[in-house]
Amino acid sequence: MKKKVLVTYNMFRSGYAELVEKYDVTFPPDGIESFTYEEVLRMIPEYDALQSMFNFPVDKRLMDAGVKLKIISNYAVGYDNIDIPYATQKGIQVTNTPDPVTEPTADQAMGLLLAVSRRISELDRRLRTGMVKVGLLENLGHSLYGGTIGIIGMGRIGQALARRAVAAGMKIVYCNRHRVAETIEDKYKAVYLSLDELLRVSDVVSVNAPYTTETYHLIGERELSLMKPTSILINTARGPLVDEKALVKALREKVIWGAGLDVFEFGDYPSEELLLMDNVVLNPHTGTQTFEVRNEMAAFVSRNIIHFFEGGPVAKVNRID
After folding, report:
1. How do beta strands 24-26 and 71-73 pair?
2. How many angstroms separate the CA atoms of 157 and 288, rounded?
3. 315: how many CB neighbours lie within 10 A of its CB?
4. Which helix (H) or strand (E) holds 203?
5. Which of 55, 104, 236, 269 could tie 262 with a disulfide, CB 3.0–4.6 Å?
6. Beta bridge partners of 95
7. CA 157 to CA 111: how far, in whole Å?
8. H, E, C per residue of 117-139
9. Which strands form 258-261's sheet, in the order they lie side by side?
10. At residue 25, what are phi and psi to the nearest 5 degrees?
11. pLDDT per residue as tens, the chain (321 positions)
12. CA torsion, points 274, 276, 278, 282, in degrees to nearest 10?
């Protein structure tokens, strides 16, 4: 009998072609965006594999109900939606999608950086409403060339952003749980610093760390106070890494100059105060939202499942015996 795979979200089918050919795959019905948690809870006892989305909670209750469940293939590089220790305890393999998300997320961070530093979104709005004043000393922003970008989390995405920043003529400093290889530092002429020192010297601070209990509110009121008054904060990682209330206060009081956010602390939408601020550029977590990447991610989660059952490399989050 074919393995049964449950997909929680109604994604483009083309990326799932190989998975559908090999296995019995269930998607949400046409016209339905996603299965609810309760629906998945009822269905999961019959399935060997679950393809979860980054915003779909996979907790102890769901895994206990999945009596046949062998793999959770998460459609994201992050996996804070899954109880990883419990999955490991249950012998359930968890996988993610690091490769397809690297370059588009770095694109998004660089795009936000450009938009904030040169006030692109703000001035577009002002032009459309006739509220812009034109003059040699009006509408001033900040140059990237010659500036310093501090990258918090020098993993795949952090290094992809470093490559873009180097091309823009920026200097690279970084902090990471562990210092990266000397070859990587040499490639980007990157300097390893403590978080506090990085915040003090950087013109731009980009948050690219994973979300864990240790990184919750990694950037809070104290950290923001260490940054330059001309500096910019970029977050394309996970919302709760930044204390959003502290960020609102810092922006209002001009502790920092601006921010570009692709993620928010309290869900899919930012605090109302951020919506009213001209020195903030906001995107609804669109770092990987291109037609090409969505299909690449679907193919990647499919390969994780196929390779797990048939042999081959998978992007493992946890180690199981």
Report:
1. unpaired
2. 12
3. 18
4. none
5. 236
6. 73, 316
7. 14
8. HCCHHHHHHHHHCCCCCCCCCCC
9. 191-192, 171-175, 148-152, 204-207, 232-235, 258-261, 280-282
10. -110, 130
11. 899 999 999 988 999 999 999 999 999 999 999 999 999 999 999 999 999 998 899 999 999 999 999 999 999 988 999 999 999 999 999 999 999 999 999 999 999 999 999 999 999 999 999 998 999 989 999 999 999 999 999 999 999 999 999 999 999 999 999 999 999 999 999 999 999 999 999 999 999 999 999 999 999 999 999 999 999 999 999 999 999 999 999 999 999 999 999 999 998 999 999 999 999 999 999 999 999 999 999 999 999 999 999 999 999 999 997
12. 40
Helix (H) and strand (E) counts in the chain: 13, 12
Q: Exposed, middle or buried by CB within 10 Å (0-12, 13-18, 19+), for 163?
A: middle
| H/E element, 151 | strand 148-152
